[in-house]
Amino acid sequence: MSEELNAEFETAESGVSNVYPAQCSSLRKNGYVVIKVHLVGIDLFSGKKYEDICPSTHNMDVPVVKRADYQLVDISADNFLSLMQESGDLREDIKIPDGELGTEIRSKFESGEDILCTVLCAMGSEMVIATKPNSGK
């Protein structure tokens, strides 16, 4: 029985939170509060709106975003764009976008306009997001 009385116990967490809820009206000068940030963002490719609330000290994932302009050379029968890079190399792996932008690209191409397509690349996806006249002739 003496062995039981001499047993040592390691400390353990009780699972209690590091914060507790309090009404804003109960906050007092020189008190402490965990501030949260309300973020509203727009998806780069779909235009869908997203919202998030997180502590102001929380780290967020930030995508590496690249933007490049390519000269539109052709539109294939299966709706892929032929885009010329500054080096003169062609890329034919980007589809014409859906919606108004796709209609605008096709219309300008068919009317013989020389345009640049702005391609946005992020998180493994690429898409034409805008056009502008090619003034670099």
UniProtKB/TrEMBL annotation:
Source organism, top-level taxon: Eukaryota
Entry coiled-coil feature ranges: none
Keywords, in A-Z order: Hypusine, Protein biosynthesis
Annotated ranges, domain Translation initiation factor 5A C-terminal: 64-132
InterPro entries listed in its UniProt record: IF5A-like (IPR001884), IF5A-like_N (IPR048670), IF5A_C (IPR020189), NA-bd_OB-fold (IPR012340), Rib_uL2_dom2 (IPR014722), Translation_prot_SH3-like_sf (IPR008991)
SMART domains associated with the record: eIF-5a
Protein's organism: Hyalella azteca
PANTHER family in alphabetical order: TRANSLATION INITIATION FACTOR 5A FAMILY MEMBER
Keyword Electron transport: no
Family per record: Belongs to the eIF-5A family.
Biological processes per GO annotation: positive regulation of translational elongation; positive regulation of translational termination
GO molecular function: ribosome binding; RNA binding; translation elongation factor activity
Protein name: Translation initiation factor 5A C-terminal domain-containing protein
